[in-house]
Design brief:
Elements lengths: L22 E7 L3 E3 L4 E3 L4 E8 L5 E6 L4 E2 L14 E3 L8 E7 L10 E5 L2 E5 L4 E4 L2 E5 L3 H4 L11 H13 L7
Parallel strand pairs: 1-4, 3-12
Antiparallel strand pairs: 1-2, 4-8, 5-7, 5-10, 6-9, 9-12, 10-11
Amino acid sequence: MTKKRRPAKPRKRSKAPAPPQTLATIIIQPGNIIQDPGPMATFPGIPVSWLVINNDEYPHVVSIDAAKIKHKNNNRFEHPFRGQTHLTSKRLNHGDQGVLWAMTENMNIFKNPHEKYKYTIDSSGTEGTASTLDPDLDVIEPSPRLFFPPSGPDRPASSRHLQKRRIYQLAGPRRRSR
């Protein structure tokens, strides 16, 4: 009688880090309701942008004040942008679009490789309504995994992979003990 082999469990592969999300869309819905643009993640030293779309029937001015950006680790008001930045859109009528953008600081000013911030989007309308929303902004030190992917049939092998292969060749095949 032969023993049945159990099927091998599939290996869990670690996910590659997500690419930075440097563009978010802010949509002003009817009634001056700001649709959540979701969290943003960016690298140091590159710009971040917000596309502003006004779907409300009234004109609005949308702004992000750097003085209101709060660091999530220490709860202090500090921002990751260069200079004193107050981002303000022009007056957007129904169906108009605008862009807000700022340049993040270089990595040498950050204490951790992953800094988390909460910023405030303000929308003011001519009819006297005002609305705010507080989404997240993460500044992440670039990972070497983004730039040196594992080797495969269509990618060259990394030096670490080649070193492991060379060590295996020198040691010879592994023998299983029964």
